[in-house]
Amino acid sequence: MRIQPLMVIITVTAAIAALALLAAPASAQEASTALAAPAAQPQPPVPGAGYILPQLSPESKACAECHKTQSPSIYEEWGASKHFRGNIGCMECHRANKDDVDAWLHEGQYISTIVSPRDCARCHAREVEEFTASHHSKAARILGSLDNTLAEVVEGNHGMITPAFPEGVSAAAVNGCWQCHGVEIKVLPGGKLDPATWPNTGIGRINPDGSEGSCSACHSRHQFSVEQVRQPENCGKCHMGPDHPQIEIYNESKHGIAFRANIDKMNLKNAKWIVGEDYSAAPTCATCHISATKNMPVTHDVGLRISWNNRPAVSVRPEVADAKLGLPTKDVTWQQRRENMKQVCLSCHNVNFFDSFYKQYDELLNLYHDKFAKPGLALMDTAKPLLKPVEFSNEIEWTWYEIWHHEGRRARHGVSMMGPDITHWHGTYEVAKHFYTEFIPQLEELIQKGLESEDAAKKEAAAALQAKLDEVLNSDNHKWYVNKMDPAEAEARKKRQDEFKARYEAKKEAPAK
C-alpha cells in the first residue's frame, strides 16, 4: 500500500488532513476522531465518503500544470470531478513508495500508473471492502476456465510477443476475455507495465500490490461521474453479447423503455439518489443491484440482491458460488438476498406483483434445468468414452457448449430481467432447436460408430449411451419427440387448437348476390 505522506507540508491542517488521507483509517468514525482536533478541518459528510483537503498539494499542482498542456482532456475531466472539489489531485491517488514493485520515477516523484482498490481504500474503505467481497473482484479467476481455453488455444495462438510473454500469448485473450474479466498485471523493470496486460480495466484485475479489481471498470477516470456510473450502458461494456446479454435484455424490457422515455426525470446527478424519493420513472442496473433504497444503503457487492447464479450449465444459489470462491457472503442465504431485492421492487410494485414475478422466474429455470440442462449434462458425461480427448475437438462439444453457455443463459437472464423475446426466441427456442436437431443426432452418430467399432470398450460405452438416450427421450419431457405423447394430452391440444381457429380465424364472406 502506498501510504507515504505528502512530501511538502503545506500548513498544519493540510498536513494533518493529508496524513489522514494516506494512512487508510480503519473506519470513517476513526477518521473523524483523528481529524477532530483542528476546528476548521472539514469532516466526511457520510461514512466511507472520503476526505477533503484544505488545498491542493504542491506536487499535484505541478502535475495539473503539466497535464493541462500535455493531456488537456484528463485535466478537464479531473476539473469536473468531486476529487477536484476536494483538492484530491494526481499525487493523492498515483503516489508510490520507491520500493513498490510498480513504482517509477516521474518528474522527481515516484508514482504508479495503476490506482488499485487498495489505493482507493485509503479514502473509500467501506466501498472497497464490499467490492472485495463480491464476485466482481474475482472475475479474473476465469483465466483457468473453459472460456479462456477457447480464447487462448482454440481461437488464439502465441503470436503476441511481449517482454513478459517472450513465448507469446493469444491476442484474442488479451483483447477479449481479459478486458472485462481482468488479468494479472505484469510489471517490467523500472515500473513500466507489460503491453499484454496494460491498458486493462477488467473488473477482476490482479494488481501489482496484490489487490483484486479495478474501480475504474465502473467509475471511469478521471471524472468518476456518478451520473455515468448509473447509466445502463456503463454495465453494458461487459454485460452484453450472446452469453450474457443483460444490456440487450434491459433495453427490451419495460424498465429500459421507461428509462429512455424518461431519462430527463431520472435525477442521475443527485447525491442521495434513493428510488422512490429522488426518482421513480424507471430503474437502472444500479437501482436494482447497487444503489440505495429507503431501507438499504448503497452496496458495492452486486451479489447481495440476486437469488440465482445463472452462470453454470445448471443455475446455483449464490451462496453456493460464493462458498467456492471463499467469499464471506457464503453465509448470506438466497432467501435474504431475494428479500433485499424485494425492498427495491416494492418502491414501484406491490407484494403480489413481486411474488408472481419470482414464481415465473423460478419456474422457467426449473423447466430449463429439468428438460435440457440436467439431461444434457448426463448425456455428455456418458458420451465421454466415445469422444476424442482434446477439448473442443468434437463437434458435439461445441453444440452442447452453445446450448447451455449461450442459449440457456440467454433464457435464464432474459426471464430474470423481464425480456420476453430474449427469454423465448433467443433462449428456450434456440435451446430446444439445437437440442433436438443437432445434439441428439450427434449423440446417435456417436452411438452408431461405437457399436460398429471393433473396440469392446467402445461398444460397451455406445450401449450405455444408447440406454441413457432412450431413458431421456422416453421421459415425460421428451416423449413427444419419439411420437409417444399421451393420447389424452394430444386430444386436449387438438381441442384447444380447434377452439382457437373457431374464435379467431377469419371466416370467408358470403358471395354478393
Could you characterize what this model shows?
The protein is mainly α. It is 49% helix and 3% strand. The protein contains 23 helices and four strands.
Question: How many strands appear in the DSSP assignment?
Answer: 4
Order of strands in the sheet with the most strands?
1-2
Mean pLDDT: 90
Number of helices: 23
SS strand fraction: under 5%
How would you classify the helix and strand content by structural class? mainly alpha
Distance between the termini: 94 Å
Runs in which pLDDT lies below 50 for 5 or more consecutive residues are 1-48
Helix content: 40-55%
Q: What radius of gyration results from the CA coordinates? A: 28 Å
How would you characterize the largest beta sheet? 2 strands, antiparallel
Shape, please? globular
Helices and strands, in N-to-C order? HHHHHHEEHHHEEHHHHHHHHHHHHHH
Keywords:
single chain, 513 residues, two-stranded antiparallel ribbon, mainly alpha, globular, disordered N terminus, 49% helix
TL;DR?
With 513 residues, this protein is mostly helical. It contains 23 helices and four strands.
Spell out the blueprint of helices and strands.
Elements: H1 12-22, H2 28-34, H3 58-70, H4 72-79, H5 82-85, H6 90-94, E1 104-106, E2 109-111, H7 117-120, H8 125-132, H9 146-154, E3 160-162, E4 165-169, H10 171-175, H11 177-181, H12 226-229, H13 232-236, H14 246-252, H15 254-261, H16 285-289, H17 318-324, H18 334-345, H19 351-383, H20 395-416, H21 420-452, H22 456-473, H23 487-504
Antiparallel strand pairs: 1-2, 3-4
